[in-house]
Design brief:
The protein is of the alpha/beta class. It contains 10 helices and 11 strands. Helix 1 crosses helix 10 and helix 2 packs across helix 3. The chain is globular and about 75 Å long. The two termini are 30 Å apart. The relative contact order is 0.18.
């Protein structure tokens, strides 16, 4: 049988978009997903991130992912709260100057429009509730606005608008990837595993303790040396009997909001591939579990890899078929 003649146009794969969702500490799973993608030779053409997804997305588009991974893995030996500015007054428990300086050191002072890979960070305007897409200007400012979790971090003033965590409006930014021209969108939802902690406790993987979602190295005295501040933080973090602490209540409520909103947004604008790491057993503030989360992310990607190949084949076929049809019309 004679071979089919080669097409007169260059075949191309679909333009891939990567939507990195919110999830606080669980966001370190994004690192594992990006590592697994790179190992498989799959590089996203556009990236959108919400909250911690914006942090990891920024690390990727600036070529700083390995540096972020090393820093994350070392958080088991370094107190994460040393990178936060605790304050009793203000619109949040923590300021963002130390994190801002850390990101500048890690990612550099770059503008989003100058990046080789198109990038969008999602934030929410505090006064109106509008969803804000940050697609130009300072990358660090955009990321800091995207993770300004209400009550935890101070709102970020950007061009005269007070912005807070984008998880309040778009936890998994598929729509932003579509708007940047993605033909195939891979979305990562970190809050789908709602009951993972109960499963892990049943299997003896995690324990419960006085500080709930916090571990021993997050005790109040590690946050500040001020006795008055320690009293306030102790009330914030500790709980009595089986009742949750104030912070545990906030974290659980945030998890529910993100989960319900993500399900609604993903139903209305579904991605082509959805990756949902099984990280529900890890508390939202357990930043020291980076190594475990990176492995969870790698496994989650591998679980969906065959589906991704199928999607690339089918969508790629449709794109190239349409391209051939357009070229044929131009000739006639």
């Amino acid at each position: 049988m004679a071979e089919k003649p080669a097409p007169k146009y260059k075949l191309r794969r679909p333009k891939i978009g990567l939507a990195l969702g919110s999830g606080v500490a669980r966001g370190w799973a994004h690192i594992g997903i990006l590592k697994a993608m790179k190992a498989r030779g799959i590089v996203p053409d556009v990236v959108a991130g919400t909250s911690v997804g914006a942090v990891v997305g920024a690390a990727h588009v600036t070529g700083s992912l390995e540096r972020l991974e090393d820093w994350t893995r070392n958080l088991s030996k370094i107190n994460f709260f040393r990178f936060l500015d605790f304050r009793l007054r203000g619109a949040g428990l923590f300021g963002g100057k130390k994190l801002h300086d850390l990101m500048v050191k890690s990612f550099g002072n770059q503008n989003i429009e100058d990046l080789k890979t198109p990038f969008t960070a999602i934030a929410c305007e505090l006064m109106s509730g509008h969803e804000i897409w940050l697609r130009d200007g300072s990358l660090i400012d955009a990321v800091q606005a995207s993770f300004a979790l209400p009550g935890v971090f101070e709102p970020f003033c950007h061009e005269g608008r007070w912005l807070v965590d984008g998880a309040l409006v778009n936890p998994v930014p598929v729509s932003a990837c579509r708007a940047m021209g993605a033909e195939l969108v891979i979305a990562v939802n970190l809050v789908e595993d709602m009951y993972g902690r109960a499963r892990a406790e049943r299997e003896g993987l995690v324990g419960t303790g006085k500080y709930g979602v916090f571990t021993e190295f997050m005790k109040p005295q590690t946050l500040t040396s001020n006795p008055l501040s320690q009293t306030f933080i102790r009330k914030l973090l500790t709980h009595k009997n089986d009742s949750p602490s104030i912070f545990a209540n906030m974290a659980a409520s945030l998890n529910i909001i993100q989960n319900r909103l993500a399900r609604s947004r993903l139903a209305g604008d579904p991605p082509d591939i959805l990756i949902a790491p099984r990280a529900g057993h890890i508390g939202l503030m357990e930043f020291h579990r980076g190594a475990e989360l990176i492995e969870i992310g790698e496994k989650a990607f591998e679980d969906e890899y065959d589906s991704l190949l199928d999607a690339l084949t089918i969508i790629g076929y449709r794109i190239n078929r349409a391209r051939a049809r357009d070229q044929k019309r131009k000739k006639t």
